């Protein structure tokens, strides 16, 4: 059987930690349902102890969104765990995610705890969370800057205390695909319980490698990927889940894994997240940006018109975008211009095109994009020259 990869969406928790983003409870409910319908296996609905609104949002999502697991976040602190327990008391699929930092910089500068104290805390908080929840996910925060042997001790402590999902966060976007893969190989070798639990990854994009790191981890034994829609999140953001889903689809041959995402719902969901987060989608954003299925230069347009696969590795329809576009500009060739004129209803011979194209070039040199209206004016100029001659 092909390995299944779970998608863990934290748009509503880590995504909301983006500067300037604040979803209303109503928006969170709408987004959670759309994310579940897209195919996420788990939604991290919030951090209930953080605020009254976070608590209410987690509670409502837990009650109402039933076609995926709903998880609440807690530090290794009793009152945080109690808040998740209360918020998800009526949730049919409620789960808990507890975390504590394990790296030397976090232990010394933030927690003021030594290794032994951190291990004691992990044991206490995972056991306590497991009293209320069958499924407990544990994260050693800043795992990628933690001593590897201590990371093994921390993870084994969590598993023995009842955690059935171990998430490896690259909290600061510090690692790279080779190193992350090697870390997973090390964990597999040194944790006898590795196959008994689900290994997850949570990557940040500080060096632009969040998606690549997450996919490298899958190649080395992870079976859950955490991330957000449009890659929103702290600082440079999280792994963009739509990128992971598209990569697994386009490169099925390489990854050889499956997931339950309905890729055709991607664009609609990305637009909704963009609208609710008030963060426009950059034009060059992979998978969903406005330029991703647009071809302007002559060589590309020519190839694309002959066979779309020359310059597109995935179809716009596969991610829910209606069609590709071939915007006309100064680099466009006569094939693309002729194709567009035909679309507008003009009957053009190749002799005509020899006269039309220089006029097009003159216009295109003056402006970034030549619109349909510009083309009509170009045709009027062309028809005048024909009448004169
Ligand atoms: Zn994060």
TrEMBL record:
<dbReference type="Pfam" id="PF00682">
    <property type="entry name" value="HMGL-like"/>
</dbReference>
<keyword id="KW-0100">Branched-chain amino acid biosynthesis</keyword>
<feature type="domain" description="Pyruvate carboxyltransferase">
    <location>
        <begin position="5"/>
        <end position="267"/>
    </location>
</feature>
<dbReference type="InterPro" id="IPR000891">
    <property type="entry name" value="PYR_CT"/>
</dbReference>
<dbReference type="InterPro" id="IPR054691">
    <property type="entry name" value="LeuA/HCS_post-cat"/>
</dbReference>
<comment type="pathway">
    <text>Amino-acid biosynthesis; L-leucine biosynthesis; L-leucine from 3-methyl-2-oxobutanoate: step 1/4.</text>
</comment>
<dbReference type="InterPro" id="IPR013785">
    <property type="entry name" value="Aldolase_TIM"/>
</dbReference>
<dbReference type="GO" id="GO:0003852">
    <property type="term" value="F:2-isopropylmalate synthase activity"/>
</dbReference>
<dbReference type="InterPro" id="IPR002034">
    <property type="entry name" value="AIPM/Hcit_synth_CS"/>
</dbReference>
<comment type="similarity">
    <text>Belongs to the alpha-IPM synthase/homocitrate synthase family. LeuA type 1 subfamily.</text>
</comment>
<keyword id="KW-0432">Leucine biosynthesis</keyword>
<protein>
    <recommendedName>
        <fullName>2-isopropylmalate synthase</fullName>
        <ecNumber>2.3.3.13</ecNumber>
    </recommendedName>
</protein>
<keyword id="KW-0808">Transferase</keyword>
<keyword id="KW-0028">Amino-acid biosynthesis</keyword>
<dbReference type="GO" id="GO:0009098">
    <property type="term" value="P:L-leucine biosynthetic process"/>
</dbReference>
<keyword id="KW-0464">Manganese</keyword>
<dbReference type="Pfam" id="PF22617">
    <property type="entry name" value="HCS_D2"/>
</dbReference>
<dbReference type="InterPro" id="IPR050073">
    <property type="entry name" value="2-IPM_HCS-like"/>
</dbReference>
């Amino acid at each position: 059987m092909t390995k299944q990869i779970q998608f863990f969406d934290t748009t509503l928790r880590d995504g909301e930690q983006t500067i300037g983003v604040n979803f209303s409870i109503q928006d969170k409910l709408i987004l959670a349902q759309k994310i579940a319908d897209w195919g996420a296996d788990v939604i991290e609905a919030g951090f209930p102890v953080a605020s009254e609104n976070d608590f209410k949002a987690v509670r409502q999502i837990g009650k109402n969104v039933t076609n995926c697991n709903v998880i609440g976040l807690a530090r290794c602190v009793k009152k945080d765990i109690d808040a998740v327990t209360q918020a998800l008391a009526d949730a049919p699929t409620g789960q808990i995610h507890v975390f504590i930092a394990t790296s030397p910089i976090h232990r010394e500068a933030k927690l003021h705890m030594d290794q032994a104290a951190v291990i004691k805390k992990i044991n206490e908080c995972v056991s306590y969370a497991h009293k209320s929840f069958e499924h407990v996910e544990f994260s050693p925060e800043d795992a990628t800057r933690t001593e590897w042997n201590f990371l093994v001790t921390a993870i084994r402590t969590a598993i023995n205390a009842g955690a059935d999902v171990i998430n490896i966060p690259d909290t600061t976007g510090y690692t790279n695909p080779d190193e992350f893969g090697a870390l997973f190989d090390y964990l597999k070798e040194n944790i006898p319980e590795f196959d008994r639990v689900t290994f997850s990854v949570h990557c940040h994009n500080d060096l632009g490698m969040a998606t690549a790191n997450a996919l490298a981890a899958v190649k080395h034994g992870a079976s859950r990927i955490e991330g957000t829609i449009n890659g929103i999140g702290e600082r440079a953001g999280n792994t963009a889940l739509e990128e992971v889903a598209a990569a697994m689809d386009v490169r099925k041959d390489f990854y050889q894994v499956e997931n339950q995402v309905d890729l055709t719902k991607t664009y609609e969901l990305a637009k909704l997240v963009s609208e609710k987060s008030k963060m426009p989608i950059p034009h060059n954003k992979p998978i969903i940006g406005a330029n991703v299925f647009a071809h302007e230069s002559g060589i590309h347009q020519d190839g694309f018109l002959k066979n779309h696969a020359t310059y597109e590795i995935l179809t716009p329809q596969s991610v829910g975008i209606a069609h590709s576009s071939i915007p006309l500009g100064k680099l466009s060739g006569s094939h693309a211009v002729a194709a567009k004129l035909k679309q507008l209803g003009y009957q053009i011979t190749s002799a005509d095109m020899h006269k039309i194209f220089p006029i097009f070039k003159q216009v295109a040199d003056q402006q970034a994009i030549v619109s349909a209206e510009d083309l009509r004016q170009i045709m009027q100029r062309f028809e005048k020259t024909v009448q004169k001659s």
